[in-house]
Write a sequence for this structure.
């Protein structure tokens, strides 16, 4: 890597640790899903590589690219890099993105059905219900473009017939958001097997309650 580029060693370590944690916790199956961090000062994205087993991933395997996908260090970035770049390009409040195909939330994504806001964690961390972005072919920039109307208002979205994307100003928070999306989907599915979940209430003053 060019010496003028920022040292992204700590970001690479954080990405590997979070990716392996996500794999252990069942948020990623096989090599699906991807994570990234963005260094706005240099315009560099650190992102998981394409198709690599999470259990053997090392910090040096993390790929550094610019917003146009030019590889500055490493080999081949995740096939979903365009989605990450599109979000960072248009929503500067975000510095980290987690993308999963976590099963309960992805079940809603393939139904193209919003996950209703029924838990306080959804109000506090996810901005309420989890909406579905319009369909786009996997790997296209349109996956990111279609998320922008949702991610500009709240830090999580379902990707139609695909999975989940969450964003935050840190990777730890983006991952927490992804876990809450999956947990919410699981709880709503369980509740719907018995009855009709009651949505949270947001009153006219904007105060939120369950
Ligand atoms: Zn995907």
């Amino acid at each position: 890597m060019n010496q003028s580029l920022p040292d992204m060693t700590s970001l690479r370590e954080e990405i590997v640790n979070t990716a392996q944690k996500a794999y252990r916790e069942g948020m990623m199956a096989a090599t699906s899903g991807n994570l990234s961090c963005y260094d706005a000062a240099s315009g560099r994205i650190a992102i998981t590589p394409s198709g690599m087993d999470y259990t053997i991933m090392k910090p040096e395997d993390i790929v550094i690219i610019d917003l146009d996908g030019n590889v500055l260090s490493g080999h081949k970035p995740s096939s979903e890099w365009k989605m990450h770049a599109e979000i960072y390009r248009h929503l500067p409040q975000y510095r980290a993105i987690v993308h999963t195909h976590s099963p309960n939330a992805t079940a809603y994504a393939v139904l193209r059905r919003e996950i209703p806001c029924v838990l306080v964690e959804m109000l506090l961390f996810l901005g309420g219900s989890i909406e579905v972005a319009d369909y786009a072919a996997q790997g296209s920039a349109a996956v990111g473009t279609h998320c922008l109307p949702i991610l500009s208002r709240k830090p999580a979205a379902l990707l139609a017939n695909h999975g989940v994307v969450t964003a935050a100003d840190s990777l730890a928070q983006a991952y927490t958001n992804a876990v809450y999306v999956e947990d919410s989907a699981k709880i709503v599915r369980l509740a719907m097997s018995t009855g009709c979940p009651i949505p949270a209430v947001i009153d006219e003053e904007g105060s939120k309650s369950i």
The mean pLDDT is 92. Residues 80, 99, 101, 138, 162-163 surround zinc ion (CB under 6 Å).
